[in-house]
């Protein structure tokens, strides 16, 4: 039987903020592309169906649009990693003193493939279920 404190820790995986869609805490790699050229590698610490927060070494301009490639880990030990490409827009960018990196709030404008959006939704639902979070989407 799990203790109440452990259950609370798992629920903390959901970042509680007033957003279009709640975000789930993750640690995934990401690449940002402008005009087909990779400009930066970084990582994601939280994600939802409407956007994400990415950490980068260089600042990105608020309002800029670019293509984001998200590297998602496999669901199980027998499945393979999955890559999602999404057209994204920078909503804000700030220096994160804790990570010593720039953190950019990203809005997902359009997924390149409908199957990418479906895969991300399934992954987020699975993580929410594992963390004991209900009605996360």
Molecular structure report:
The protein is an alpha+beta fold and 137 residues long. It is built from two helices and seven strands, in the order H-E-E-E-E-E-E-E-H. It has helices at residues 4-11, 114-130, and strands at 14-15, 23-34, 37-47, 51-56, 65-72, 82-96, 101-111. A six-stranded antiparallel β-barrel has the order 2-3-4-7-6-5. The chain starts with a helix and ends in a 7-residue tail after the last helix. The relative contact order is 0.20.
Largest sheet: 6 strands, antiparallel, barrel
Which structural category do the helix and sheet elements fall into? alpha+beta
Q: Pick out the low-confidence regions.
A: 1-17
Ends apart, CA distance between termini: 28 Å
pLDDT averaged residue by residue: 83
Overall strand count: 7
Quaternary state of the chains:
single chain
Sheet with most strands: strand arrangement: 2-3-4-7-6-5
List the helices and strands in order: HEEEEEEEH
Quickly count the helices: 2
User: What portion of residues belong to β-strands?
Assistant: over 45%
Globally, the shape reads: globular
How much helix, percentage-wise, in residues?
Answer: 10-25%
């Amino acid at each position: 039987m799990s203790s109440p404190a452990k259950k609370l820790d798992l629920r903390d995986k959901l970042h509680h903020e007033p957003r279009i869609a709640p975000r789930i805490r993750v640690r995934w790699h990401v690449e940002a592309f402008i005009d087909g050229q990779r400009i930066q590698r970084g990582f994601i610490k939280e994600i939802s169906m409407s956007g994400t927060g990415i950490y980068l070494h260089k600042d990105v301009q608020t309002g800029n649009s670019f293509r984001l490639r998200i590297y998602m880990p496999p669901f199980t030990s027998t499945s393979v990693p999955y890559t999602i490409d999404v057209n994204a827009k920078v909503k804000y960018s700030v220096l994160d003193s804790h990570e010593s990196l720039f953190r950019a709030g990203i809005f997902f404008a359009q997924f390149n493939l409908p199957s990418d959006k479906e895969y991300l939704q399934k992954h987020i639902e699975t993580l929410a279920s594992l963390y004991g979070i209900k009605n996360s989407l």
